[in-house]
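Ticket #4471: structure output looks truncated?

Reporter: J.K.
Steps to reproduce: submitted the chain below (151 residues) through the standard prediction queue, then opened the result file.
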Amino acid sequence: MKKYLATIAAASLVLGLSACGGAQEQPANDSNQAEQSPVAEQPVKEQAQTIDLVGSWSAESAVAEITKDKITIQILSEDGTEKFLYWVGDYKLPETLEKEFTFTSNADKEALSTSIMGSQDDTKEFTYKNGKISFEFQAMGMTKTIEMQKK
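Returned output as attached by the reporter:
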């Protein structure tokens, strides 16, 4: 009987120490996880870095061209045969990119001053979400959200 109780006590002690040992190893795992966090975040950063807005964009009523430092938007006539300059401004991606973000463009007032449809705004805010860029178009007392897709 004593051997049986001693065996149970020893087994309990081993299990208890294993549990404690597991708890002590846990911070090591946490530090490993902390070390792995940048690796785990890396695909997110890589994905964000692949967001490239440079190129041609279009909507039913507008077209845009984005270069590494400029965004130009032209509004299309109802039949789509004519283009009217609506926006020319600087373009710079935010430093932190996510699946959804906004950026602000400062108007090139000189370029817009000769356009009949040129925006009078000093800045324009653009939103990137789900592969689309949207902005508020304002003309003749009307405001409409235009959503563009990359060609």
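Triage note (M.O.): checked the attachment and the full token line is present. The CA atoms of residues 103 and 126 lie 5 Å apart.
Status: closed, working as intended.
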